[in-house]
Amino acid sequence: MHVVLLVLIAISIVVLISYTGDLSSYETVASAKQKEGKFVNLIVKMDKSIPVDYDPVKDPNLLKFHVQDSLGGKIAVVYHNTMPTDMEKSERLVLKGKVQGDVFECSSIVMKCPSKYKDNPNAMQEQPVTITN
After folding, report:
1. Does this model's pTM top 0.70?
2. Which residue has the higher pLDDT, 17 or 7?
3. How far is CA 66 from CA 46, 116, 133, in A?
4. What domains lie within the chain, and their CATH numbers?
């Protein structure tokens, strides 16, 4: 009985260790460039000083734009899909993909929307709060 329990515990440990290798963390542009070809997640904002290259008539599945991380690292992004609605208005973007040379090949974009309380810090006090028991 004890041998069976030890074998099950050992198998559980091996499974847990194999899953921890797949956990992804957020990278900076500099660290993503060092991991060229490996899948990473970037938290960035759009670099609005460089125009977005997107022509839905010519190629609706090609979007090119530039981003900057919180440390000032910049990189060009290529996304082979349609441009997400209101992407330019997004406060932050989470990009999933990999660096290939000087370009980030993006497979997925998650937009972090600006807070509705950002422009009006008193908006939270203006909202009625109801607490029920």
Report:
1. no
2. 7
3. 6, 26, 50
4. 25-115 (2.40.50.140)
